[in-house]
Amino acid sequence: MKEKKRLIFFAVLAALLLLTAAFGKYLCPFDPYEQNLLLAKQPPGPEHWMGTDRFGRDIFSRVLAGSTVSVYSALFLVLAVTVTGTLVGIICGWFGGAADAVFMRIADLFLAFPSLVFALAVAGVLGGGMQNAVFALAVVGWPKFARLARSLTLAQKDAPYMMAARLSGSSVPKLLLKHLLPNIGGQILVTAVLDIGTMMMELAGLSFLGLGVQPPAAEWGSMINEGRSLLQISPWMSLAPGAAIFVTVLIFNLLGDTLRDFLDPRQKKESRIPKKNR
User: Fold this and answer.
1) CB-based burial of residue 271 (10 Å sphere; 0-12 exposed, 13-18 middle, 19+ buried)?
2) pLDDT tens digits for 84-96?
């Protein structure tokens, strides 16, 4: 029950975050792109809660407007690499053969390099823009899920329930969708939720380096880069979007950890054992 309550709590926080990001541009108290040099570099106050940037734009409004791009780009990226990697991993683990050898060697090639360094190279070739940044991280992000799905498939492939399903005459698609996927989906889902924060920071890193969203578009990584040169004079310009990234990553990481504890069968089994018998 404790894990269930924690899961509900963090799921509600994540849902509120997603709703805020979805309607961010409608919640802005000021126009996030309106420049007023008379209000430039004002510290946080009653009117501008997070201060203003060098062009007099309200930072709180820009953080809200940038949440749509930052949060949903990371979610789309995680969804893309999870589906692609899981599909490749299941096919390789179930059928084996040449396809398994080829795809796993490709996965090993991508995993041999730090993901952000590889993504920098791909994004540098493709040019700036959030679409290219998402594609660059997707190229280097799917092998992790492919490896995980393949190992889980190999572990479940010859399990007694799978053998019984084969003997009952189930087709391969039915075996994979009805029997295999529900039994490995929990671990893949936990990995995907935990990966949201990582992908968000990597997207922000590419934008910080000028390979993601291009100014004046509002995005948390590019906003940190815009305030970098004024960090000693106007630290709120970088601290505000940095705090937004911190809170968002923290929520999704805590949600992933709680979801892992909730789906862990060993945890459930221990919770049913009376304390005096442990």
Assistant:
1) exposed
2) 999 999 999 999 8
Closest CA to 70 of 12, 130, 146: 130
Residue 247 and residue 258 in contact, taking contact as beta carbons nearer than 8 Å: no
Q: Is 278 a residue whose pLDDT tops 60?
A: no
85 within 8 A of 77, measured Cβ to Cβ: no
Across 124-132, average pLDDT: 82
Cβ-contact 212, 133 below 8 angstroms: yes
Predicted local distance difference test score (pLDDT) of residue 277: 47
Got the DSSP string for the chain?
A: -HHHHHHHHHHHHHHHHHHHHHTHHHH-SS-TT---GGGTTPPS-SSSTT-B-TT--BHHHHHHHHHHHHHHHHHHHHHHHHHHHHHHHHHHHHH-HHHHHHHHHHHHHHHTS-HHHHHHHHHHHH-SSHHHHHHHHHHHHHHHHHHHHHHHHHHHHTSHHHHHHHHTT--HHHIIIIIIHHHHHHHHHHHHHHHHHHHHHHHHHHHHTTSSSPTTS--HHHHHHHTGGGTTT-THHHHHHHHHHHHHHHHHHHHHHHHHHHH-HHHHHHHHS-GGG-
- Mean pLDDT, rounded, for 77-102: 92
Euclidean distance between CA atoms 137 and 199, whole angstroms: 8
The fraction of the chain above a pLDDT of 90, given in percent, is 55
Cβ 53 vs Cβ 62: under 8 Å: yes
Q: Looking at the predicted structure, is the pLDDT value of residue 269 above 60?
A: no
CA dihedral angle for residue 69, residue 70, residue 74, residue 77, rounded to 10 degrees: 40
Query: What are the angstrom distances between the C-alpha of 167 and each of 63, 104, 162, 164?
Result: 57, 30, 9, 5
